[in-house]
Amino acid sequence: MEIGEPDFSAAPLVVEAGVRALRAGDTTYTSSLGLPALREAIARHYQDHLGKNVPASRIAVTSGASGALLLAIALYAEPGRDILVPDPGYPGYRHLVRLLEAQPRALPVAAEHAFQPTAGDVDAAWGRQTAGLVLGSPSNPGGTLIPEDSLRDIAGLIERRGGVLIVDEIYQNLVYDSPPTTAFGLPGETILVNSFSKYFCMTGWRLGWAVLPEERMPLFERLAQHLFICPPTPSQYAALAAFDPESLAIFEKRRIEFGLRRDFLVASLRGLGFGIPAEPNGAFYVYADCSAFGLDSSTFCMRLLDEEAVAATPGLDFGDQGTKHWVRFSYTRPLSELEEGVERTKKFVEKLR
Amino acid sequence: MEIGEPDFSAAPLVVEAGVRALRAGDTTYTSSLGLPALREAIARHYQDHLGKNVPASRIAVTSGASGALLLAIALYAEPGRDILVPDPGYPGYRHLVRLLEAQPRALPVAAEHAFQPTAGDVDAAWGRQTAGLVLGSPSNPGGTLIPEDSLRDIAGLIERRGGVLIVDEIYQNLVYDSPPTTAFGLPGETILVNSFSKYFCMTGWRLGWAVLPEERMPLFERLAQHLFICPPTPSQYAALAAFDPESLAIFEKRRIEFGLRRDFLVASLRGLGFGIPAEPNGAFYVYADCSAFGLDSSTFCMRLLDEEAVAATPGLDFGDQGTKHWVRFSYTRPLSELEEGVERTKKFVEKLR
After folding, report:
1. What is the domain partition of chain A in residue ranges?
2. What pLDDT score was predicted for residue B22?
3. Which of A211, B14, B274, B298 is a Cys-bridge partner for B10, taking CB atoms 3.0 to 4.6 Å apart?
């Protein structure tokens, strides 16, 4: 229950579109921004499923969400500037900022606010050299959504400060209690990051995308050219089939399955004595407080692995903010295995009492 | 005759290995350093074809040579440091150094020295803040090789200065007048960069590799994890078949074909009045001096494209060092098209006289 990778693989139509591309020799470099047909398909997806009119000219296909984040952060990171990153949050954010020689600045987010920043938090943390904020919704490790009005307030604040808001929507469609949403259309300079890895179950294919302000596209394209040349071509042709109704029906079935696992895991972990104050509504993570068991979370996870062969991720990976008492459980395994995992975790925590 | 992309695609066994991987669902994340089997296969390739014993533990599979260069440069680039890059040279070198907030420092290389630096050049250019040198052999745009003893002298010099030598061997096997070589085994801190894109004709598959000092592997792996997660998985499975004798036989036939094209293009361009003082022995480029025609190379290329629909790359793309008079021609098209291209170029230059 450790890795953030679905136990499902690509939809059959996607696989067969990939096979056709390989056999047809559709494996040459594409434009650095991706196949025009795929950018159009992503635009239609925003229109059809999220009700937003996102022009294809503002969509860049990337080498995974990692590639999108790297390029997006590269547009704004400069020595002497800092970029706010949620703590706890996806560790890639701070490492990419640091790699590009800006300073990642931890923005503590609390369970009381669903591990998401409020406009007040952002206002208080924003410094003279702050260039922007990166946040994920649904979040990792929290699995939590930022309320729409809160995100709008943050976007407005950042617009007034002249910064950039980067919203990582990699888990956009993996939501269980409300329809999926997008930050597209917020005021100010906003970049959205997304991926075919999670909902579309195409992890190793390394394909994602970004939505940018029109005027950032030329620089983003030049950077993409030098860092990546282009996203993997067979993956791009394959992904064209990801939006086919037959494929989407499969992804929806899997989303429902993820929702059932979430229900099971949250209830079971609470039953064992874990604290889960912030309801996880999305992604495939439960972020749970293990204080009740008297071990810091790194020791907890290491012993759980050693003694019961159950893998979970210690909070330490996600920042410093109280993370010593938190553990991330992924529900990227079938229910039967989650049941087994919970059973073993139960055995382990009973020894600790 | 502009783009550096072979007009051949992957070998049939490679395509079918890719197809099998897609259909088997071998499309999940791999280790950030790549499939162990592929690292072993690359190690065997060094042993069998280059006579060098490169341990698989020092090989990292990457998202193209671009990914390898980015990660390699990231290990050494820091604000305040500089890294030497050949001028003219592959533009990615300087852009990656700049992105990572170190200073790219142009190292002028002259046609008299086959567009390669000498140890004297490196010695003269090395500054107090210099962290290393990146060079390509065969080079782009020159298509030239660095003499082995010269490279050894440079490696020794850089070792004494405590820097790193990064050798881009992306065109390693595309040599026409001598057997392929590798810089592996030189003294000092050396990183080699390579790719499946050129000789193996797998451009859009986005797969390359790096060979690193053993002690740099852990940091390289951590960076790769955050920047790329892993190289594209289907491409990795497919590439396992690239070293099959049947595949290698195809690549060798193509190499011979590239050699014939080189012969034709060098002789033809010289016949038209271009200066080609440095014999291109590798890659698939001819770097030619167009001074005789009285136009700077950017104007030359733009007019050649406009008036005769022939695309070539102006020297400007590769640096500042006298590049205004140089044009890069790629021979990545069949001979019949090269003949047509030369015919049209002839028509164009005759108008200029």
Report:
1. 12-243, 246-352
2. 98
3. B14
Q: Which one of A27, A32, A76 makes the best mutation probe of the B interface by having the most chain B beta carbons within 10 Å?
A: A27
SS3 B87: strand
Show residues of chain A in contact with B79, CB under 8 Å.
79, 101
Contact indicator for B77, B289 with CB cutoff of 8 Å: no
Q: Is B74 on the interface with A (CB under 8 A)?
A: yes
Is this model's pTM higher than 0.95 or not? yes
Helix B217-228 crosses helix B64-76 at what angle (to 10 degrees)? 120
For the record, the structure tokens of B123 come out as 């010695």
Cβ <8 Å between B230 and A63: no
State whether residue A283 sits within 8 Å of chain B by CB: no
Query: Taking Cα atoms as reference points, which of B86, B76, B189, B206 lies closest to residue B138?
Result: B86
pLDDT at position A33: 98
B116 pLDDT tier (thresholds 50, 70, 90): very high
* Closest CB to A79 among B10, B66, B79: B79
Spatial distance between the Cα atoms of A135 and A193, rounded to a whole number of angstroms:
10
Interface test with B, best of A3, A5, A7, A15 (most B CBs within 10 A): A15
Q: How far is CA B83 from CA B76, B77, B141, in A?
A: 9, 7, 19
> In CATH, what class is B246-352?
alpha beta
Distance CA(B39)–CA(A139), nearest Å, equals: 34
Distance from CA of B84 to the nearest CA of A (A): 18
Q: Is the dihedral of CA A248, A239, A133, A286 positive or negative?
A: positive
In whole angstroms, give the CA distance from residue B42 to residue B21.
19
DSSP string, B285-337: EEEEE-GGGTS-HHHHHHHHHHHH----EEGGGG-SSSGGGEEEEE--S-HHH
Within an 8 Å CB–CB cutoff, is residue B95 touching chain A? yes
Report pLDDT for B353.
Answer: 83
- Residues A346, A116 contacting (CB under 8 angstroms): no
pLDDT band (50, 70, 90) for residue B322: confident
- For A211-264, the pLDDT digits (tens) are 999 999 999 999 999 999 999 999 999 999 999 999 999 999 999 999 999 999
Q: Does B7 touch chain A (CB under 8 A)?
A: no
pLDDT at B38 over 90: yes
pLDDT at residue number A149: 97
Nearest CA in chain A to B203: A28
- Decide: A324 and A297 in contact? Cβ < 8 Å: yes
Contact yes or no for B265/B286 (Cβ under 8 A): yes
Q: Is B9 on the interface with A (CB under 8 A)?
A: yes
Q: Which residues of B touch A93 (CB under 8 A)?
A: none
Size of interface A-B (CB pairs under 8 A): 144
Segments in chain A below pLDDT 50: none
B191 neighbors B169 (Cβ within 8 angstroms): no
- For residue B176, give how far its alpha carbon lies from the nearest alpha carbon of chain A (Å): 24
Question: Rounded to an integer, what distance in angstroms lies between the CA atom of residue A165 and that of residue B238?
Answer: 39
Q: pLDDT for B45-103, tens place per residue?
A: 999 999 999 999 999 999 999 999 999 999 999 999 999 999 999 999 999 999 999 99
Predicted confidence (pLDDT) per residue in A111-130, tens digit: 999 999 999 999 999 999 99
Helix ranges (DSSP H) in A193-322: 217-228, 233-239, 245-272, 297-308
Chain A residue numbers with beta carbons less than 8 Å from the beta carbon of B63 are 63, 206, 228
Class of domain B12-243: alpha beta
